[in-house]
Structures are given as structure tokens and as C-alpha cells.
Specification:
Blueprint (H helix, E strand, L loop, with lengths): L14 H14 L5 E2 L11 H12 L12 H15 L8 E4 L2 H12 L5 E6 L4 H8 L3 E6 L10 H7 L4 E7 L11 H12 L5 E5 L15 H4 L7 E6 L12 E4 L2 H12 L7 H12 L3 H21 L15 E2 L9 E2 L5 E2 L2 H12 L1 E2 L1 E2 L9 E4 L4 H16 L3
Parallel strand pairs: 1-12, 3-4, 3-5, 5-6, 6-7
Antiparallel strand pairs: 2-8, 7-8, 9-14, 10-11, 13-14
Helix pairs in contact: 2-10, 3-10, 4-5, 4-9, 6-7, 11-13
Length: 400
Amino acid sequence: MPFISDTLARVKPSPTIAVTTKAAELKAAGRDVIGLGAGEPDFDTPDNIKAAAKRAIDAGKTKYTAVDGIPELKEAICRKFKRENGLDYTSGQITVGTGGKQVLYNALMATLNPGDEVIIPAPYWVSYPDMVLLAGGTPVPVVAGIETDFKLTADQLAGAITPKTKWFIFNSPSNPTGAGYSAAELKALTDVLMRHPHVWVMSDDMYEHLVFDDFEFVTPAEVEPGLYERTLTCNGVSKAYAMTGWRIGYAGGPADLIKAMRTIQSQSTSNPCSVAQHAAVEALTGPQDFLAENRALFQRRRDLVVSMLNQAKGITCPRPEGAFYVYPDISGCIGTTSTGGAAITDDEAFATALLEENGVAVVFGAAFGLSPNFRVSYATSEDALEEACRRIQSFCAGLR
């Protein structure tokens, strides 16, 4: 009898974590490596949020809490949804988890049965398909390529829906592409969903505050109120508030779904970290001025990376609307050989040779469901980005 569950054979470790780990190992061995794989801001959590955590510790807020969030945090989340998204939720419609990933996982575990399908636009965040598989469902990737700016069309969505479809996972701005859907683009998708009342929407809004130029963020239940009763609107403090390690995600949705998710959490992790919850209250209710400052910084980095990568031979890099990623196409590099003699047969081979020969760590596109591409996280210093892009240019110039 095998000891390891058959379920584990259906999933794989996170490629983004693997790349970050590999880069760290090479650095520890003395190699000059620039890591562009990690999806987290490079600056510290704001001081007022850290101070709130310290006050919570000093006040003894270090005990178990309610399973899916303290009342103060749930109230702050309700106010956030109303203020920024025009969505009305009560505390009974809010769940707080140990990071955004747990919130998504709880929802899938609470709702999926064998044979249930989940539509996932590709390129996708690496965890979406594997979480669906762990929950017993069937991921249905639908490729939205560079020709549509990595955005799913209404016709594609309509064509993917079957009687078995239970969820549509929507992520804007996107990890890994940074693509953001305008209100009109999203309305075209919600019009399709209104014709299929058995399909629920899981909206991952984690990069809501990281949008550039004149782009205006919108979320599905805001664009189409008719979807409110079958939408789980997910978010968190990780990216915008530079709180990745604090592990606080949250969501608003129908009370029955939230109750089912609470049951899952009660028998897995129980409550998120008590101190981190109090810090998240301050994040959502305290000063928000730094958000605009950080957004401007990320926009400068985006413009730098897009410009330099488009100067590399064989690379085409679209300019995304948000997040802190770019997803360049490397069709012009496939079928070549690197200076070090590596055959560039696909994007994984490209990323491997780039790391080994030029010391730049990126995540290959196949991990996100669309090749030949790679993902760059520009959540690092401009000096590091400039040097990394110069190395990528040099690597591409040497391909023959």
C-alpha cells in the first residue's frame, strides 16, 4: 500500500518558489545572481502598521481568535469593500484567512466535487490549477495570448462553459502578465456569466491598488450587481501594503459560502495570526497616502523593464496595466543556441541557461500555462533591474 496520497500525484510544487529558492542557493554559494522571481514588494511594511502590531503584542492580543477573523478586522474589510468597490457586505459575509491563497483554497475545498470544472484564463497564477486538483475538481485553462493582450474574450469564456462548470477564476491585474481588464472588457465577460446562472465567480483582486497610467480598477460584482450572490471577491494586504509575510487574506461573498469556508478553516489552520490581524486593521483603516507613492515607483520600474526588454534580440514585451510583472514573448529566441552551448528549445531551457550563464533568475512561461514566455517580477531596485535587463540583452545577443 503506497504511503503517500494519490492526490499528491496530481499537483506539483510552486515553480515560482522553486526559482526563488534556486537563486538564493546560488547566491549563498557565491554566485552573482539577480533574482526576478519573487512576487513580493522589496520595501518594508509601513511603520504605522508595524506599530499597530507592537501595540497588539503589548496589549496581550496573542491568544486564539474567532476562526475566520476578529470583529474589528471584518468591520474594516466591510468598510473597505464599500469605500473602494461599492460592495455592501456584513461581517457574516466576510472571511479572513492565512493569506489570499488559503481563502481561495478554502472556497474550492468547500464547493468542488469530482467532475466539477473550473475555468482558468491562461496565463494564470501557478497555484490556481493545482488548488483545483487538490480540491477534486478539473481545471479548464483557456489561453488568452499576446494577440489579445493576455485578456480572455467573451467568446472564449462562453465557449469554455459547460454544464459541469462551477467556478470562473478571474484575476485583474494579473499575475503573471500584469494585464488589467477595463470596465468595458469586464462587462463583456459578466454579460456571458449572466446567461449561465450555475457558474460562480472567484475574483482575485490582490493587485487592485497596483495599477498604472489612467487605468481604473473594477471588480466583477461591481460591474454587474446581478452577480453579487454568486461572486467571491478576494483580496488581501500582502502586495499593496508590503505585508507578504504577515499572511492575511480576506474575501466577501454569500453567507452560506462563507460559513462553509469557515468550517474548512476550523479543521485546518483555525484562526490567522492574531497579531497580524490587528496589523491588517491598521493597514485598511490607517493612512493610505503611501499607496500612490509606491504605485508611482512601480510604474517607473515597469517602464524601465519594458523599454529595456524590448531592446533585447528576439523578445517582445507588452506594457501591462498593473501588478509588478511583465510577461515577455521569446518566440524569436526558440531554436537557437546560447553562448554557453545550451539549446534553447523552449522557455524553460531559456530560463535555465539565462540563470546559469548570466546570473538572472526568471520564471519560465510553461509554469503559467503559456509559452514561449517568461515572467519578470520588477519588485526590486531600479539598479538591480537595469543590470538584470542588461544581462538579458547580452544573453539574447549571444544566441545563435
